[in-house]
Structure formats: C-alpha cells, structure tokens
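Hey, quick one: can you model this chain's 3D structure?
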Amino acid sequence: MKIQSVEAYPIKLPPLGDTQERGDASRNQYGDYHIARDAWTSIYSSRHETCLVRIETDSGIVGWGEGQAPVSPRTTATAVEELCRPVLLDADPLDVEYLWYRMYSAMRERGHVSGFYVDALAGVDLALYDILGKALEKPVYKLLGGQFREVVRIYTGGGGADPEGARKTARSQVDVGYDALKLHLRQPNREIAAIVSAVRDEVGDTVELMVDVHGARDVSSAIQLGRDLEALDVRWLEAPTLAEDVKGHAEIARALDLQVATGEWLRTVWEWRQWVDFRAFDAAMPDIARTGLTEGKRIAALCDAYNLPVAPHVGGGGILAVAATIQYSAAIPNFQIMEHSHVAQKNKGRIAKVYPEPVDGHFPLDDTPGLGVEIDEEAVREFSV
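Sure thing. Here's the predicted structure for all 385 residues.
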C-alpha cells in the first residue's frame, strides 16, 4: 500500500444561528479576526477555522486528519501541500512514526520545530492513523496501546462577565450531564473569586471546577488567585502566567496545593522536557491536533515517567481533533480528563456525517475503525477557503 494523494483543506465555518456582526468596544476588529484592546491575549476568529488533511492510498483507503488552525488555516495547508506532500507521496502509510520523524527532521535545522509547521505534521499524522485503523479494521485507540478505560470523561467550558451570568451558564451545563466545568475568566482576582464562588454555590460540591486565565497574570498575582481558588475547592488553575515563563509556572506550582494545568502551546516532547524537568505543572495539556498522536504518545509517556497526569486540550480544534483526542485519551495510562466544547460541537460537526457525541459528560468508546468520523466531502469543499 502506497500514498497516492495528499490534500489540505483550510476551512472556515460561520457560526450557527444568528450570524449578525456586532461591534464590541472591548476589542479591535480585523475582518473576521479580533483581539482584546486591554490585554495581551490571542487573536480570535468569529468563525470556526481549521485545516483538514486528506490522504488517499493506492488501495482506495482515505484517511482524514486535522492540524488545528484557529486562525490562518491556509498557512497550515500550505505547509502540508508544499513541504509534507513531497515526502509522503509513494510512501507506505503504515510507517506512521517514521514519517512524522522524517518530516520533522526535514525542517528542524532551519528552526521550524514548532508552530504552523508542526501543526501540519499533526494533521498528516492523524490522517495516517485514520488509514491505519481502517486498513486493520480497528479503532485507533487499539493501535496506540489498547483500551485503558470504558469511557472518556470530559469537562466543558464557559464563564461569564458577572456572577449571575456564570451561574446560569454553569447550571445549563450541569443539567445536560457534566460534572466538571472550566471557567474562562480574565477579570481582576477579586472578581474572578466572586464569579467562581457564585458558580460553586450554584452547582454544589460534587461538580469539579477549573479556572483558565489564559496567561494573564504575573507570578505573584497568579499565586494570590490560586489561594483564593483553593478555598473554593477548584481543581486547577490553567495557564496562570506567560507561555514562555517555565520557571514562573514552576514557582506557582510549588506555591499552590491545587493543580497548575498548562501546555497547550507545547507541540513536541523536546519542548515538554524542560517543563517536566522544572516540575512547572501538575497536569499536562497537550493538544493532539498540534502534537499529532505520534508525538502525543511520547509526551504522555514522558509525563507518566514523572507521575504526572495528562488532561488533553482541544480548544478551537474541530471535529477530527475531538475524535483523535478521544482515541488518545482512551489509550494512555495517565489520563485525567479531556476538554470539550459542548456548545461548539454541532457547528464543528457540519463537515461530517458521523462523529462522536458525548453522553452525560463522557465520550463512550466503540469499535469504529480509524478515528471514528465519516467526513462529508461535499461540506468540506463548501466551507473551504
């Protein structure tokens, strides 16, 4: 079996329902993109953007993958088609790990050891695992190391500008079966504590709460916030300070009893190594549509050697990212919990005919070969840019 074709599809999905554009004084708008005016936060899109990878073999098996691209999916697509495709054509698709290492090594001396290029490798890697599963008629988790659990526990995200709004959001999420919620909050520490206190009061003691501040604290204010959150029985503080500050994260982790969860921006085991060495986190959050399954397994193994749990990040990833993360979560021993966006699932699924659906805060596992997604190729073409 040989690889016959490699194609990349940068897609942009408009939101479902009310799509009317509204101005927002708190952010600068750049076409589809916007950035907060008063904080050093990420650029976001008003659409769901990502890059899909389609690989077909000479035996007719088609595998689909995704390199997460919440903005600028054409950048990732260019890397797939101009840098990855020449290496892949006529190769054996079953040489999954070899091909990841071959492509990674092709650009490492030039300094492209993270970012969009490694996202492209992740998209290819997921597509190759999809082919492998379909060829062997096995779900990918069986090929990654086997089934460690019957279901994959998930949490969903929300937040709110004020305590009442956060209460309502949390209640709606608990009412559909979630027993773990993450609050995305960037307010001053006292306001965050008030919001989390209101949510805790609303959902009770049996629901796990996590807080993500998206790197918007210095070390001392992150520690102060963490101590406030410990009093509210919060499970973790996520991305407490700048993504580059490994020693700052380590200082925060040492100071707090709750978990420090982080790492969505770290794509390879070489990047993760110094974070593990410094014990700069308590829960690792690799993003499988950025690491790929090949590198994601190596990251999980590194963390396991240091008795560190893995709580995979999904964030803005699409339906293939979700599916691949389920497979990954089922196949590692040190899994803790998986991120999932309940409200975004239907929109992400518009490019597929069949895809995983959560049940009572968990993804059940089945024996569907490959990643478990049946892509709607007509929809992919419709939303391609």
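One thing worth noting: The chain has two domains: 3-138, 143-370.
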